[in-house]
Design brief:
- InterPro entries: Cell_Proc_Reg/RNA_Proc, FHA_dom, SMAD_FHA_dom_sf, YscD_cytoplasmic_dom.
- Residues 94-143 form the FHA domain.
- This is FHA domain-containing protein.
- There is one protein chain.
- By secondary structure, the protein is of the alpha+beta class.
- It has 2 domains: 1-31; 73-166, Tumour Suppressor Smad4 (Sandwich), CATH 2.60.200.20.
- Helices cover 25% and strands 27% of the residues.
- It is built from 2 helices and 11 strands, in the order ααβββββββββββ.
- Strands 2-1-11-10-7-8 form a 6-stranded antiparallel sheet, with no helix packed on it. Strands 4-3-5-6-9 form a 5-stranded mixed sheet, with no helix packed on it.
- The chain is elongated.
- The termini are far apart.
- The relative contact order is 0.17.
Length: 168
Amino acid sequence: MSELTLFVFRIAFLVLMWVFVFFVVYAVRSDLFGQRAKRLTAVPRAMSPDASAFLTQAHGVVSAPAATSSQALALVITAGPKKGERIPLGTDAITIGRASDSTLVIRDDYTSTRHAVLELRRGTWQISDLDSTNGTLVNGERISAPTAVVPGTPITVGQTVFDIREDS
């Protein structure tokens, strides 16, 4: 084997080794600090029936009737490590994930750093998956678009199951 061929193999090996190191550093960084969450686009407040139908068809927004209860609602964890915990729902969005700044912190291997967000939109609570690895399940089905959640519907994030109930 010529000296030039050996030199090319050494350089190729070093390049491959550095690529491996960069992948490892990227994986550690994303695990420690999380990946950037996508910003959800705002839906116009006043919308004609035609525009609403277009949004439903084009973007897969699933709607359900708004909750008509006059009582306050709470997020109740029904299964998982925090079973029995209640989080009162106001008008602020509830962020769900492993990140310490999340409203509902779930520390398990199946939950992403920024996993999902539950927010009040036009009088209806809707949950959106934030491109999590294992997905968010509503009533046992994985969601890909903001989905309306009526009280009593089970939501699964990682190994934790919760639903919205009237706060008593």
